[in-house]
Automatic annotation (TrEMBL):
Superkingdom of origin organism: Bacteria
Protein name in UniProt: Tagatose-bisphosphate aldolase
Cofactors: Zn(2+)
PROSITE patterns (alphabetical): ALDOLASE_CLASS_II_1, ALDOLASE_CLASS_II_2
Pfam families associated with the record: F_bP_aldolase (PF01116)
SUPFAM superfamilies for the chain: Aldolase
PANTHER family, sorted: D-TAGATOSE-1,6-BISPHOSPHATE ALDOLASE, D-TAGATOSE-1,6-BISPHOSPHATE ALDOLASE SUBUNIT GATY-RELATED
Keyword Glycoprotein: no
Keywords from the UniProt entry: Lyase, Metal-binding, Zinc
Species this protein is from: Gordoniibacillus kamchatkensis
Gene name per UniProt: kbaY
């Protein structure tokens, strides 16, 4: 089927108490690997690219590859632009065929975040594209965006209510204590805050910084109302490690297929593992 907006995928997840995995991909093989994971397990899927990957590969290439993958399968797949601070890049991606975009104006004061988000919501609605916005500040490093621990700021539930009302944003990423990258210790997730925010707003909620959160905590986040989890660093690591292993045993290897095939397999296994944790396996039919 063609690429779909992530809105119905996430609404079904919110209603039925599971979360959809959103995987950041950087190469064709990574994209194919997560699509195969979704297909084999009959799971809904969100493919994501960062702004850096859009600059690296081109929005048109990414959208064409995602559309081809979606057309080859019966599971619903959305293509999402992760953490974008730039209006023109968002418009470029929507034009190229992205079905979901994130406007990240969380570094600005509340009113400015509202104004920038609303502007994107108005454009995206006309195109049938989902929008995600961030409230509070998720810590860590994502592409070129670096938020230090002292700058990270958790989202206030009442601000979330006002933000959703003022912007009409269909998906919200409230900062709840997770961070981008791999955690040094255990993540410091504010579960009570997730509960309050999920009770206060009806839109699907997004958990950023999903790499390396222990399974029990992932499940708790989902049970409390998180409907999408972003996974970037973890699949990048398994992909790269599989390639390093090939070269460790065969430093002269020069056939890309010889190292891309094991890398793809590793990503596929990791993605299925995340889908299982999120409870979205077998849920593709919810949005067909
Ligand atoms: Zn993020």
């Amino acid at each position: 089927m063609p690429l779909v907006s992530s809105t119905p995928l996430l609404q079904a997840a919110r209603q039925n108490g599971y979360a959809v995995g959103a995987f950041n991909v950087h190469t064709l093989e990574m994209l194919q690997a997560v699509v195969e994971s979704a297909e084999e397990t009959d799971s809904p899927l969100i493919l994501q690219s960062t702004v850096g990957t859009v600059k690296h590969l081109g929005a048109d290439y990414l959208a064409a590859a995602a559309a081809t993958a979606a057309n080859r399968t019966r599971v619903p797949i959305a293509l999402h632009l992760d953490h974008c601070t730039d209006f023109d890049t968002i418009v470029q991606c929507i034009r190229a065929g992205y079905t979901s975009v994130m406007i990240d104006a969380s570094m600005h004061p509340f009113e400015e975040n509202v104004a920038q988000t609303k502007r994107i919501v108005d454009i995206a609605r006309a195109a049938g594209v989902n929008v995600e916005a961030e409230l509070g500040k998720v810590g860590g490093v994502e592409d070129d965006i670096v938020v230090g621990e002292h700058e990270a700021l958790l989202a206030d539930p009442q601000d979330c209510v006002r933000f959703v009302e003022l912007t009409g944003v269909p998906t919200l990423a409230p900062a709840v204590g997770t961070a981008h990258g791999i955690y040094k210790g255990d993540p410091n997730i504010d579960f009570e805050r997730i509960r309050s925010i999920a009770a206060a707003v009806s839109v699907p909620l997004v958990l950023h910084g999903g790499s390396g959160i222990p399974e029990e905590q992932v499940k708790r986040c989902v049970a409390l109302g998180m409907s999408k989890m972003n996974i970037a660093t973890e699949i990048r690591i398994v992909f790269s490690n599989a390639i390093k292993e090939v070269f460790a045993t065969n430093p002269d290897e020069n056939d890309p297929r010889k190292y891309m095939i094991p890398a793809k397999k590793a990503v596929k296994a990791a993605a299925i593992e995340k889908m299982r944790m999120l409870g979205c396996i077998g849920k593709a039919a919810d949005c067909r």
